[in-house]
Amino acid sequence: RGLFIPDELEDLQRLLWRLAQGGGVMATAPSLPRYRSSQGLDLHALFITFCLDHGLQYLLYTYLQHHLTPRNCPPLSSQSLSESQPWFEMMVKIQEITRDLTPALIFQASLTSAQVLLPGSQASLSSLLLEGHSLLALAAVMFAPGGIDQRTVDPQLLKMALAPHSKLKAALFPTTPRGHGVSSDISIYHLLQSLHPLDPSRLFGWQTANTISSTTSELPHFSSPQLVQMFALVENLDFLYYLRHGRPSFAYATFLVQQLNNDCLALQNFHVASVTSAAVCFCELLGVCSLKLRVDVRAMNTVLNHWNSSYEASQEWTVPVQFCQLHSLDLSSVYPAHCAQDGHYIHFLLFVQLHSFPPQQVRKLAAGFGPALQAHLSLVFQDLHVRPQAQRAGDSGSEDPECLSTAKASGSGDQPRELFQVLLQSQDQGAPCRFLRRQSLLQRCPTLAGAEPLACLCVWVLTSVDDVTAGEATTHLIEPAQHTEWTLQDLSIIWKTLLGRGQVRPLLQGFQLFLKDCPLVLMLSMFDLCCDYRNFSEAKEKLLDFQRTLITLPLPWVEAQASVLLLTLLERCSSRYDLHHLLQLLADVDVLFKSNPDFRMLSQLSQLLQDSDLTLSPRLLQCTSPSVQQEEFQATVDALQARGRYTQARQVAELAGLPLLQEVNSFRSKPQWRRLETRVSFWKKCQEQLKEDGPQPGSAAQFFLSQAELLDTQERCLLLGLAAHWLSLLHPPPVQELQSLEERQWRSRVQLQLLTTSMERQSVFNLPGSNLGPDVDVYRALVEEFSFSHISALNTDNFLSTDGLPAPVGAGQQDPNVQSALTPEEREVLLLLVGQLLDQGSVHEASRVCRYFGLHHPDLWLVLRCRGLASGELRPQPGSLSLSMLSLPEDQVVLELQRLVDRCRHGATYCKQVLSLYRLSKQELQISFSQVSSEEPRSVLEALLQSEQPERFRKAQVFIRAQGLSPDCVAQLVCSAVTRSLLTPSPTSTPTTQELQTRLVFRPSEGRDSLIQLIRLCEDPNLVGARLMEELGTVSLRDLSCVELLIVAHDCFSLTCNMEGIVRVLQAARHLSHAHLAPGEHYSLLVRLLTGVGRYTEMTYVFDLLHQNHRFEMLLRKKVSSSLKTALLDYIKRCLPADSEKYNMVALCFSMRREIGENHEMAARTQLKMIESQPWDWCVRQATRCVRTAKLVSLQLHFLNQGSDVRVINLRPAELLNAVVLTVCCYQVFVVSEAYSYSPDWAEILHQKVVLKGDFVFLEELRRHRPLTSSLFEDVFKVKRLLSYCDDVYTRYRLAYQRSLNDVAENLLQDVKTSNYLNDRLSS
């Protein structure tokens, strides 16, 4: 599975052992496709190195052949491996030939093989020619690109190498022009004369170039008539032979030729429709016209129809038989005889009975049947009697011949017992159908049901079931069943009775026979599929088809019977599994009949009860009243609660619309219930669970109200707020009920405050009261979350008016204590609590509370008057202002508002907000106060920022402080404003876009200072930056708006030096540049991103992208800042030191003329040096090579003149050492070494010349040309070198072992040539 521990991945041998357990390294799907070692090598490179280090050549060859090529494995092309292991390069080259047999690869493989097989040689044609391997070089050059004609080798060198092969040299280098030389009189056939098996005098006679052959013939082949006649075994091959040999085309052609002309099978079976149809289809599939075959078959069937024994043929034979009867002739027996011959006894009996054949003639014709049918017919004829034909015809005046009759013997009053007797007897009745139905009931035979659909269906069903079921289905009949006129009511009773007993098959068969188009057939099929086969998917299709039928053709009676069937089906479900699937089926199909229960609800209830031991009540499965259903659901919920399944109980109650049940009883018994924090957490959990379940708001509110009556005052306040929250979700919300709940809550709050104050007074300890403690904090937070102040239905404008507000005592009003029925203590507490509401800004709630209890609060009156003055509903009080202040009406209102602010004790913050909004509406926005106050503070702030006033940002800052807007709200406004302005088109496009620009909070045309002021409106600019980063996902990543969003986000984070935010912006910028902008060639956006962010050191990759795509000059099109200039110069110096063109472009942009001149001067000098040195350098090298070659040739001539056989020309690398040893003087060694660029082994040469031969003159001459170092003398007198001249291998090994020359001894033991011999000697 590719799972390995780290130790195995670090140890290659352990890794290979693990891989071997799972298929080995040769597996088709490697277990480590992305493996990387600590050195950065993949598995292939590690395995190749492993095989090279351990000499596993054969394993490496198989591995490379199985997996790799130089194209998909870079280590195979490594130059270092090729130099250290030449055989490895040869292996790779040879394997490349097996995959791609191209001349170039063969050429490279040939050179590499030559380098390995000829040690010391180089992988080049010149080396092969110089070393004397001319034929090998010539064979290799044939595969070189362009062949030998391209002259991949020096022609002069090739001529010298081919000197021993004169004819080959003459052929490759002809002295005459090509095409004009004398043609050779020797052909290949002359050369083959010495090969006796291929005697050209008797063979190759068909070749025109063979002038030796004395016979002329064609090239022998297997289809040659002469050879076929003499030696071939001829057989007629059918199409199966070609198929066995994989030759479908020949098989097809042979089959057409052999088989298509043979249509005997179809003609032999012309009366069998299946055979003739198959034959015609077969011909058409083969592309052969079947017209002739079809015409022949039709003609033969036409002839046969005259002798057919079918019922249609009997109609044609009626006329001949009637003709015989009218002319007193013997009745024609042609048709009955054919019926007897074909075994059609029914056609036979009907025909002879219909035409009143004489019994004697019938018995004679019956002899044509088989033995079995003859026996049956004889029994039939025994119960039949004969009577005169005239009597049946109603003519009693003549004695005609006897004929078959259904009359019994005289005096017999029994009913006929045989089917055929009943059928024949019915023909004598006035109402045959009624007679057959009566006989069907009497004899319990469904086959005799008759032809009227409704009556026949009833009779069929009753006679198809047992007597008990039939009796139960007919108990409602007044008269006997055989005399009943059947109606739909009777069928409904039969339907319900049989379904109740589970006998659906008789109903299904009866409807299919008599009312096959009735939709109830589909319902019966569905019943059968569910009960007997448990095939609910197919049953669902039947039910859907039934519903579609009812939609197009409404049938009330059919719908009623379908409802009965469904209810019966639910009752007969034998297991919970079947019942659950059936209810799910009915819920999916959404079956809605008038008299059926809610199947969707029952299905959901069944799903909820799956994990419990409860089952659906049978009363729920019937069509019961809603009250009964509620009782059953309530019983189910109680049972679930008793079993501790509270979650399921809640879900069932929500499903049925019951009042939500509580789990308080189980929690009240726990000790933790005494803690306020526990109880508050429990109610919060209930609220969250209800919110998740999504019940009806009325049910949820009723749940909390029912619990509020059972709890203490403190919790009652909380639950009343929760109940009001759920009631506010109704549409429309019940305002009166909400106000009643609010009044109840405030009474409880007053009582709670009184109780707390009383406990503090009576206690001898310093109680923390209601202001401290974690329990109280949790409680207060939840009460505040579900406060009545958040219910918009209660916060109407009429509560912000002083109309109806309780007036102070002495103003013509009654005592507020009498009005509100509050005690003085309660009134003081309520005044305190209302003051707290005003301080919190909950003016609506404070006004409502004072009206509920008839309480006059002076600060509330001031607050409402302040708002009334601002909205224009009230006027300033006359005489309240001095005459010096009466300049403008607006000033009067402002001064009056300021006076009220100074007088207000509780709610001063709200009054200040009113004053701020009033000034803003009149002076800045030029709209009414009512319009401003009705809007959200965020909208007002946005309208202020959209104005054209120069100090709008300062006034917006003042408004934010006055209204107490949170930093998150301001950040959201700023973010949306920036995003909208960046997505709005340019103002120069159309008048519409110009109008849009004027309504923007931030207009890019105002510059960066305006943007910074907008960002600073938020106390924490980081919030703006974070929101802008989130907005990146909503804009196109290849648009200018995305780049601008990143730049603005960077400005936000830079204002607070938030390094985490800055890094986040830089990461997003890098991803945007590499993944979207650069691939989409949006280079202008890249430049904008770079210059907008301004972090050039961190964004060097933008310089790289522009340079790689040749768009570097785009950085110079705009006004370049000093920081960008510095970054550009630094980038060019560090990354592009040799790009003088780009350097000149940047220098020219920055007006750096002196640097441009210095750059041009340096480039000119460099070019001049290159121009001067290039041809002379080549000439010097060529001249030096010529001089060395001349010296070598002179030395060779010197040896020849001296009669010496020493050869110094065309030496191979392996021959150089022997050649220099054979020289006489030291300078000759220098000549040879310079000519071949060979570094001589001076230690070996001195050993041969001085030590062995005593030529000290050579030593003196060498001393004059080069210094003799101590290491050279050590190498000369080394014992190892002396041992190499010992021919006795065993002596050499013994001396090396005695003198501790371990490396020499080890080499002898490992050498293939000496190891076997030494092992044998040492073992003996």
UniProtKB/TrEMBL annotation:
Domain Spatacsin C-terminal: 1024-1176, 1178-1278
Region of interest: Disordered: 390-414
Name the record gives this protein: SPG11 vesicle trafficking associated, spatacsin
A single Gene Ontology CC term: synapse
Organism this protein belongs to: Cynoglossus semilaevis
Domain of life: Eukaryota
Annotated GO biological process: axo-dendritic transport; axonogenesis; chemical synaptic transmission; synaptic vesicle transport
One Pfam family from the record: Spatacsin_C
